[in-house]
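Reminder: ligand-aware prediction takes two inputs, not one.
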Amino acid sequence: MLSFVKYSKCMFFKSRTLDWESKVGSSCLPCISKHCYVGGGYELYSIECYVTVIRVFIQVRTFSVIRGLLVLLHKPVLKTDIYCICSVQVVGRGCYGNVWMGQLIDQCAAVKQLSLNNRQNFLNERDIYRLPMMEHENIARFIDATERQLPGKAPELLIILEYYPLGSLNNFLKHKSCNWPEACRMAHSITRGLSYLHTERLYKPAIAHRDLNSRNVLVHSDGTCAISDFGMAMALSRPFSGPLEEETAAIAEVGTYRYMAPEVLDGAINLSDHQTALKQVDVYALGLMYWELFSRCSDIFSGHVAPPFSLAFEAELGSHPTFDEMQQLVARERHRPVFPASWQDDPLALAYLKLVIEECWEQDAEARITACCAEERMKELGELRPLCLSVVSSLCTAT
Ligand SMILES: Nc1ncnc2c1ncn2[C@@H]1O[C@H](COP(=O)(O)OP(=O)(O)O)[C@@H](O)[C@H]1O
Ligand SMILES: [Mg+2]
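Here is what comes back for the chain with adenosine-5'-diphosphate:
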């Protein structure tokens, strides 16, 4: 009986082994003993056969585990019934279409609606969101992307995201100022999102956003932020094939003029290392966003009233700066948004804040800090206390 069991086991693993071999080729299994194949009788049954069996077992198991992992990483998209999305109200308007607050069967969602003319942008954004390991608390949560045609209507492309009730950072700052801990928390969370985006992980390529600005950052109800709008984003693992003019232009000349780094405005981006160069371009825009965000931090203005929200360079160039104006101001004159006077006299927290902002928007792209480094800096900044707050709290304790 015992020998029968051993014999059957041996035959079973023989057939599994052959099955495996037919899938992956015998060269992948150099360790398999031929004893298992010939005869298959009890007389050839040996310790070696046991070892072989265990090895095959491990390999078959490993194969299934890896396959399982890959299936998981190629996340099956959570299918929504696209005909049941009921649009409630417009919550945002971007360059490519409207964003609606919609009601799915059991949840509220934001539905970005693009026309067929913007298919390239749609496909790019969808493909970036669908990359493995794109779930992160500081990256907008993707639900689905699909095309639909309602009866009597033109076909439309939809990107469905979690709905962020506080809207974009830009919108948030227009209507609300924040205190020091809130500003630091927001700045840290945006930077954490960017740092994650820029970092290559096991199955996730490094990604450059290429249109980072306060309209493309969403605010969670807990006051942290998530980066969104990946219509221009680019996965950076593909080696740049060479200075083909079309490709060079497609890589370099992208983004919103206001937030374009000097090297982009000047057409002087270093394409020989485009991965680093595109990350540096994102970090420049991050510096401008810090300026916009902390300019609405009431704690660091005398009298604790922050001035109304202003976009970077709005004071200098108004609401719709042209490419040429930006090029002149930022690339040629090396001008940057001015720090408020009340930020001058703090030797610690605000001096550090200004330093970090300057390290991000450096004229020389090589001298800019990385997003990962900026994340560290923002964490440290959150632990500092601006002088004006210490004065107020010491006055409170004295009285
Ligand atoms: N998930 C969301 N929740 C709430 N508001 C959103 C959401 N996604 C986008 N919005 C709003 O819509 C605006 C435009 O969205 P965006 O994705 O940037 O579109 P575009 O690619 O056209 O610029 C954002 O600035 C924001 O105000
Ligand atoms: Mg946008």
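The two ends are 93 Å apart (CA to CA). The pocket of adenosine-5'-diphosphate (ligand 1) is lined by residues 91-92, 94-97, 99, 110, 112, 140, 161-164, 167-168, 171, 215-216, 218, 228-229, 231 (CB under 6 Å). We will return to this case in the review session.
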